[in-house]
């Protein structure tokens, strides 16, 4: 088993290990994109947050006529 993150008790980690591993991978991906985390492992959602897809990002079905 991967060691628990700092500050997480082993019993709690064992119960939720798959979620912790997923969170760690997600953090690595975010950091690779330039997202910064503070000393409490938080990110600024006002700076990096996403409100949803833009109109142009939503796939549109082409007209049949």
Keywords for this entry:
2 helices
Put the structure in a nutshell.
The protein is mainly alpha-helical. It contains 2 helices and no strands.
Molecular structure report:
By secondary structure, the protein is mainly α. It has a domain at 8-33. The protein has helices spanning 10-32, 45-48. The model has no long low-confidence stretch (mean pLDDT 79).
Mean pLDDT: 79
Sequence stretches where pLDDT stays below 50 over 5 or more residues:
none
- End-to-end gap: 57 Å
Measured by DSSP, the beta-strand proportion falls in under 5%
The H/E string reads HH
Helix segment tally: 2
Radius of gyration: 18 Å
Count of individual beta strands: 0
Structural class: mainly alpha
Blueprint of the fold:
Blueprint: H1 10-32, H2 45-48
């Amino acid at each position: 088993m991967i060691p628990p993150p700092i500050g997480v008790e082993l019993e709690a980690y064992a119960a939720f290990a798959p979620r912790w591993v997923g969170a760690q991978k997600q953090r690595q991906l975010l950091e690779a994109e330039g997202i910064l985390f503070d000393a409490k492992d938080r990110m600024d959602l006002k700076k990096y947050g996403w409100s949803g897809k833009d109109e142009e990002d939503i796939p549109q079905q082409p007209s049949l006529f």
